[in-house]
Design brief:
InterPro entries: Ribosomal_uL10, Ribosomal_uL10-like_sf, Ribosomal_uL10_bac_type. This protein is of the alpha+beta class and 252 residues long. It contains eleven helices and five strands, in the order αααβαβααβααββααα. The chain has a five-stranded antiparallel sheet with strand order 2-3-1-4-5, with helices on both faces. The longest helix has 42 residues. The termini are far apart.
């Protein structure tokens, strides 16, 4: 090829190369979203298990356990299981995929997946027995008493988690999702100090019932005063006056 033709081809290719350099790297190598990636069957099953067993519960607390021994792990898990809280070690990559593709709140846990991590989550509990449970058949009774995950997590439950974590000394809470809302470590600690819904309802009933009780007490006192006044008036009317008593003596 003549030198003039070579220079012409190079001159024509120069703008194209400059345009490729000008394209941002993010445009050239755009990562595939986690929801559209294809994973092996084993990984898909583990992602589904993380979603159903852990991330779908009302309490998901991510913690780092770098130096926790097997004996300490078993002791912590046994203590929390009695409180209705499960403890499970998770794979950072698979758990990150499950959290990222479930909701915006759980996706915020992904940046904290570093090192050796474990997750505290709400365990299914038995619902309270119904009044007509003894009249049911055994099969229906067993189905009615099937363990279920509570709809919401109460602050006392999170306080139990924090108390056991403090005793373990080698576990550090980093973040969590409580009742569908993302919390950092400080917010989780503050959440554990709040009263439970039962306590709030009791306080609300007491506040709403205080004026009625005060009004009832005032009305009761007034009624008692009125009854006492009427009783005294009846006694005064029935008792003879001083003049009548003086007139009655000579007649006698």
């Amino acid at each position: 090829m003549p030198p003039s033709a070579t220079s012409a081809v190079a001159a024509a290719a120069l703008p194209l190369s400059r345009s490729l350099v000008a394209i941002p790297r993010r445009t050239l190598f755009c990562p595939v979203p986690a929801s559209k990636r294809k994973y092996p069957l084993k990984k898909q099953l583990l992602v589904a298990d993380y979603r159903k067993s852990i991330l779908s519960t009302p309490a998901v607390i991510l913690a780092q356990t770098p130096n926790l021994s097997e004996k300490e792990w078993d002791a912590l898990r046994s203590a929390l299981r009695q409180k209705g809280i499960g403890l499970r070690s998770v794979s950072n990559g698979v758990f990150g995929v499950a959290a990222e593709t479930l909701s915006e709140s759980t996706a915020k846990l992904v940046p904290h997946l570093q090192g050796h991590n474990a997750v505290f989550y709400q365990l299914p509990v038995l619902p309270p027995p119904s009044p007509d449970a003894p009249q049911k058949l055994a099969a229906n009774f067993a189905a009615a008493r099937k363990p279920r995950v509570p709809a919401q997590v109460e602050p006392p439950t999170i306080k139990d988690v924090i108390d056991n974590v403090v005793k373990a000394k080698k576990v550090q809470i980093v973040a969590g999702v409580l009742n569908g809302t993302y919390y950092d470590a400080k917010a989780i600690a503050h959440f554990s100090t709040l009263p439970s819904m039962a306590q709030l309802r009791a306080e609300l009933v007491a506040v709403l019932g205080a004026p009625a009780q005060r009004l009832s007490s005032l009305l009761g006192q007034q009624q008692m005063s009125l009854v006492a006044l009427l009783g005294q008036r009846v006694k005064d009317l029935e008792a003879p006056s001083a003049g009548e008593a003086a007139e009655a003596k000579p007649a006698a």
